[in-house]
Amino acid sequence: MRLDHLSFAAGPDGLAATAERIGAQLGTSFVDGGVHPRFGTRNMVLPLADNTYLEVVEVLDHPASDKAPFGQAVRARSALGGGWLGWVVAVDDIAVVEQRLGREAVVGSRHRPDGTELRWKQIGVNGLIADPQLPFFVQWDVPAELHPSSGAAGDYSLAALEIAGDPRRVSEWLGETVEAPLEDVKVEWVAPNGTPGIIAAQVQTPHGLVRI
Fold first, then answer.
1. What CATH number did the domain enclosing 78 receive?
2. 70 within 8 A of 78, measured Cβ to Cβ
3. CA distance 7 to 85
4. Contact by Cβ (8 Å): 5, 53
5. Number of Cα atoms under 13 Å in the Cβ half of residue 52
6. pTM given for the model
7. Which domain range does residue 33 map to?
8. Where does the pLDDT of residue 95 fall: very low under 50, low under 70, confident under 90, or very high at 90 and above?
9. Structurally, how many domains does the chain consist of?
10. What confidence score (pLDDT) does residue 66 get?
């Protein structure tokens, strides 16, 4: 179990403009990730060190976005002006999570602009919708070299997360201590004053630490 990526919902200016704005703050650029046909969303990604990445995601005007929990979650966050949607944990065997949560994972996929298909299974988005401090889970079905973090410049890495929430609650959800997926990331937990969830991410860049 490890931190896989952070997801940021596009604001009213749309996917490209949101990704460009965040990229400008970090001094780098996001790349087109492609469309998630099963979820009615599309994304742009920024590879980071330690097999992690940042994702900016936008909901599409597509029936899938009304049915899929992930599409619903993105639409709701974007409707509030955009911002951090949540964090995602990668697991080696998602069947363990399926058994613990009592439901089946769904298959996700997207085609990169070069035509390469990425596939994975995910579960737990409904938990995120109910309580945004909770991550959801993915199991990738691609070789390591196709993971979205591939090609990351070593001088860009996630340094810290600021989360409004309760680490005990998150540990219960994970089935093990929250330190397991976040052992290499400094986490600042604060008591929620409103909606729980990610408050900010601190990214180490060649130009210094940047808080998004």
1. 3.10.180.10
2. no
3. 5
4. yes
5. 27
6. 0.94
7. 2-151
8. very high
9. 1
10. 80
